[in-house]
Amino acid sequence: MSKNVPSKWLRIILPLALILTWFGVSAVGGPYFGRIEEVSEVDLTAFLPESSEAKEVADKLDGFISGDTLAAIVVFEADDNKSLTTEQTTMINNAGAKLSDIEGVEGDVSPAIVSDDGKAAFVAVEASTDQGLEEVVSGIRESLKDADIDGVTSQVTGPAGFAADLNVAFSGIDGILLLTALAVVFVILIIVYRSALLPVVVLLTSIFALSASILIVFSLAKLGWVELNGQVQGILFILTIGAATDYSLLYVSRYREALYANKHRWNATLEAYKGALEPILASGGTVIVGLLCLLLSDLASNKALGPVGSIGIAMAMLGALTFLPSALLLAGRKAFWPVIPHADMKSRTTHRQKVEKGLWHNVGEFVKIHPRPIWIVTALLLLVLAGFSTQIKADGVAQSDLILGYSEAREGQDTLGDHFASGSGSPALIVVNRDVMDVAVKAIESTSGVEGVSATADKSESGVAPLGKARGEIENKIREGIEAQRSGLPAEALMLAPSTDQLVAAAYPFKNAEIIETDGEVLLQATLRDDPDSQAAKDTIAKLRVNLKDAGVVGQVGGPTAAQADSNTASIHDRMVIIPVVLIAITIILAMLLRSLIAPLLLLATTVLSFAASIGVAALLFNGVWNFPGADPSVVLYGFVFLVALGIDYNIFLMTRVREESLKQGTDKGVIKGLVVTGGVITSAGVVLAATFAALGVIPILFLFQLAFIVAFGVLMDTLLVRSLLVPALIKDIGPFVWWPSRLKK
Q1: Which pLDDT score, from 0 to 100, does residue 261 have?
Q2: Whether pLDDT at 22 is above 80
Q3: Cα separations in angstroms, 736 against 86, 237, 671, 673, 731
Q4: In this structure, are residues 227 and 41 in contact, taking their beta carbons and an 8 Å threshold?
Q5: Any residues with CB less than 8 A from the CB of 408 and at least 6 apart, and which?
């Protein structure tokens, strides 16, 4: 036995202990895959900045209405553009009353409100968020189906309807997304390694890393330290699997090289570990720093992705640096069967000849001969594509457009808008002091885009008491009916009958309603004329805030529309703050890693150019091919963080090897050698990461589909164009000066 090789017991016990530890972590963390939704939020206001008006209103709602419910609006429409009959209206009320028996429906269901055209009606239902919105809404839909009102179609919409549809869309994260990502990675690994055992070991590394991540994230969310939603959960899955596989590919590549050079697998492990440790730590550290910059965000969902994503990357690094080396140490050369790397001269010669005649040798020769034309042409191509990035419409999308494919809530909202004020069921919520309520009502009613105002009230079947013009219109309709009846009475009867005003007061349906007052404040509800998640409705929110302020009213405007508006504003602010911080942080890391100031700036410039080109291509496809209504502002921010951090990843893989080779044989030869020996592993890593992010597209959510495309396309462009041609050609053309001020510049 070689004196450099430790005892057999250490070579077996140490890796076996690490492997058993990871199996134990997976056994504990695995069951939490199906429980992560227990700590996920569905309420948009939960992620808003504390200083936003919508968040302030949301925090005060418990004093006026149940904070554990969301409104579901059931809209009924007569078929064939007919008017509802008296019998149908009665059946609608009966069907609505039965909804209160469904588990998860809180309180009584409101009576049917018939539209002015008589062709539709709706009832309001309070659905419990504790029960599971999709289950409650599903129960409502089943009950309506059983009611089977002849000639009438029903749909469930409103905040609860949209939230339930979103939950259903996200439900595939635990199953179809995870299985798709793992299956894609497994197929790619089989193609890359052409081995039976190696893909299984690498895949287990990803699964164990993800199990540990889920266990930690679930615990933190349970303690209330991070806020989770479906998109953060999905990104965690993809990021962890992709990163763990990438780091595994790098280590396996180094280990295979070391097996050709070392007769004993322990020495090969040490050599591989030494070669892979720095780039894996630097790569993972870069991504973690980029993700942690999201803590500067105003939105809790962005803040959550910072630590949550960082945990996933940290576990990916830990798995690739502990479980994978241990498993490969025990398996030895057999892990690569049927192409087993031996340390004899014949095997080394065959391997070297294969490399020298392979694709990446040819790419290296191409870069070596034509460096300047290559980097100029590739840079110009990226600049042209980047020019289209200004066309990206990332200023927010309507909630109804978040779901790709069919959504009953979206269809129901359209039906509601055809017969009622589009904002019915999703009013703006305004908190003001009771003593300025009348002034506030006038300011609200004077705002274009507002249909009517009510106050949240007790002892009212609908939970509100109409105010201002809305109350006057109700009283006028009652008055007209009473006066029509009185006109047919003889004078003697009129003298004995109550006055018209008395009869109006007695017939007023909200006469017993008591306006709820909490800490001297009341909650007003303003029905919006436009679709609640349209840009017109968001503009109305902005005008409401201005009009209230101009009237001298101190109050806050919230509700679903305000929450969307405040979220978009915060997202746009985040882009302006976080992107520069990410660039500065990554530049510092690269400078420390490469011991240079010039190389980091060049690498960062190429990566940013690649990102801009990806956004340009995305803009062309989103607008001209897929005809998307727009994009969430966070799509650009997330795309930037992932593409810059992950794009730098591949540059780190390349440049650490280029620096290593440059120390041996100079920059001119070192850059070509670094390109050739890392070409296969980096390309494989890029394809794996692109494929895993592309798997996000199986979840029918617009945000995830757009993010999946931007990152997958960008990673492939970084891998196949930027890292393979632009960067090595640029470094080759500039020469040793790229290492300034280190000694390598000489």
Answers
A1: 79
A2: yes
A3: 88, 41, 10, 15, 8
A4: yes
A5: 141, 155, 156, 157, 161, 165
Rounded to 10 deg, the angle between the 198-222 and 323-331 helix axes is: 160
Per-residue pLDDT reduced to its tens digit, 214-255: 999 988 888 888 877 777 888 888 889 988 998 998 898 888
The answer to whether 528 touches 423, Cβ cutoff 8 Å, is yes
DSSP code string of 567-612: HHHHHHHHHHHHHHHHHHHHHHHHHHHHT-SHHHHHHHHHHHHHHH
Dihedral (CA of 353, 359, 362, 364) sign: negative
Give φ, ψ of 222 to 5 degrees: -65, -35
Instruction: With a cut of 70, say whether residue 611 has pLDDT above it.
Output: yes
pTM: 0.81
Contact by Cβ (8 Å): 578, 289: no
Q: Where are the domains of the chain?
A: 1-34+174-346, 68-169, 358-406+563-746, 427-558
Per the structure block, which two tokens stand in for 301? 């969902």
335 Cβ partners below 8 Å, 6+ apart?
195, 197, 198, 201, 327, 328
Is it true that domain 1-34+174-346 has CATH number 1.10.10.10?
A: no
For residue range 453-485, what is the model confidence (pLDDT) as tens digits? 988 887 555 577 888 887 787 777 777 777 777
**Residue 666 CB: number of other CB atoms within 10 A?**
14
In 370-407, which residue ranges form alpha helices assigned H by DSSP?
A: 371-386
- Please state which CATH class domain 358-406+563-746 belongs to: mainly alpha
pLDDT at 714: 92
CB count within 10 Å of CB 101 equals: 10
3-state secondary structure of 455: strand
626: its two tokens: 């897929």
Q: What is 14-42 written as a DSSP string?
A: HHHHHHHHHHHHHHHHGGGGGTGGGGB--
According to DSSP, the residues that pair with 403 across neighbouring strands are 701
Summarize pLDDT for 272-298 with one digit per residue, the tens: 999 889 889 988 888 899 899 989 888
The topology (CATH level 3) of 68-169 is Alpha-Beta Plaits (3.30.70)
